[in-house]
Amino acid sequence: HVQLVESGGGSALAGGSVRLSCAASGYTFNTYSWFRQAPGKEREGVAAIDSDGSTSYADSVKGRFTISKDNAKNTVYLQMNSLQPEDTAMYYCAARAASCALTWARDDLYNYWGRGTQVTVS
Length: 122
Fold this sequence. Notes:
This protein has strands at 3-7, 10-12, 18-25, 31-37, 44-50, 55-57, 65-70, 75-80, 89-96, 112-113, 117-121. The protein is mainly beta. The termini are far apart.
């Protein structure tokens, strides 16, 4: 039974930091990603990490967010620094068996999703 469980969301002041966690169970995937969706907006890719440790980021978060993975715990993290109000969204963890840096931000190519965790920046 595959399961992705996010945690770590909450409220932060602009300029602050939040760290999200995504605990995966039931399978070890090649690609783990974070997506977010703000009210009235489409879901967008934030960051991805592949099994070889390579990472990809949306331009809007480069230099501020860092995705990492603890293989022993099968857990993926998203460290978010220098948060801005426009980072306010529901953040989702997603995973897939395929590994392709060109398509990391395509949410239609992910098979498994967590329920999401809210991040609010004021």
